[in-house]
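cron nightly-structures :: item 1 of 1
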Amino acid sequence: MGCPGRKTLSFFLIFVPVYLHGALTQEAGPTRQRKPFFERLRRLEEQFRRFQEVTLTHLQAIASNYNLSYNIDARFQSLAQESQALALAVNQSQATVQADLGHLKTWVRKTQRRSRKQDSRLLALGHALKERSQQQAQERKEQEAQREALSGLALDVRALQDTLAHLTHTIQSQGTRLAALEGWLQMACPGTTAPAWPSAQPELRSPSSLKLQGSRQALRALPEPRDPPQGFAGQLQVTREPPGPGNQWTGPPKRLGTICNVGPVLVFPNTSTENVVFLSPGFLSGLRALSFCSWVRTTLGHLGTLLSYATQDNDNKLVLHGRDSLAPGSIHFVIGDPAFRELALQPLLDGQWHHVCVIWTSILGRYWLHVDRRLAATGSRFREGYEIPPGGSLVLGQEQDSLGGGFDVSEAFVGSMAGLAIWDRVLVPGEVSQLATGKELPPGAILTLANATLIGGFVQKVNCTCLELCP
């Protein structure tokens, strides 16, 4: 690359000697021409000096520009590389920020969904408490009516006692009269034997005594009062018999025997979001009735999530979990969030095997809870006419906050499950008892542990002959 300053300097170096040579040749002229020549030479020298200064300044500027332009390509390349690295860092920062924003949005949506869920559950809990208070008020009214009936019964018993005393006095007087009559007959007819008259006792079959015995039988059929009225304590004995088959009288708890042939056992060893079991293919059609039965043993002081069924529009279509329950040994039975019922399962906290059956039907919204063959809870008007839709995700051991995910450590189940099965109908008490005694499954089960297609985390699937030998 040529330099313009160097060409100009070469031109002046050639031009100045030529010009000086011409000026010296003119000195040989007349004397009168010398003065203008020297003046012209002086002016020329001044011009040359100024030109030299300008040229030097120009050359210095060219040199400075040359120093600046030296290795400019390498500098441009370095600058381009730095700009590319800066752009890459900016892109990475933007990607990180976008990912953080995505996680933040997901967390916000999850928090909002949980807050809505909690609000709806609080509303449902308030409604349940209101219904419970109404039931308690109704029970108090019934108790007052029973107390009034007992008061009337006490009055009737007092009247019966007075009648009995009057009858006893009458019988005694009749006995005295009969004895006097017998003595009179013996005196009138010395050889005649008096007839064997019955003794004067209150067992005479008079109409009054028959009426009294009927009243006693009626009293035996009445419930035993808590505080017997004064005046007949120790005289009236009211018997209380166990209710018949139609009543919910459980009696003392019975210890279950050895249970065998229950199939595989799922063991959930710890609280981890990875400990989950997926049942496939799930519900292939809508359910208007449901029966969920399983052997359960938990090792924690509270119940986690036994079952969770979620769809695209609702992550709580069917849930059995104990995180939000008021009591540690209770679970929320959810059908179509926010509707739920709280079921007490305190016996499951003793670390032993227990058989649990949760049954529901959309007809009148009836539901039943069976624990170890006994009816533990029942109710109605729970999701009356509702249908659980098909096509969702069904998991064991975790509660879903989204379809197939959104698991939480605090909602995990820790323990073992065995003999789990689900029916799309209502099991009768005989079938529940059959399951709880280790007999074969009732027909029509739509899902069992054989449908466990994906077992994640540290969950183990083991086979053992009897429950007492299972881990």
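cron nightly-structures :: done
The CA atoms of residues 308 and 319 lie 4 Å apart.
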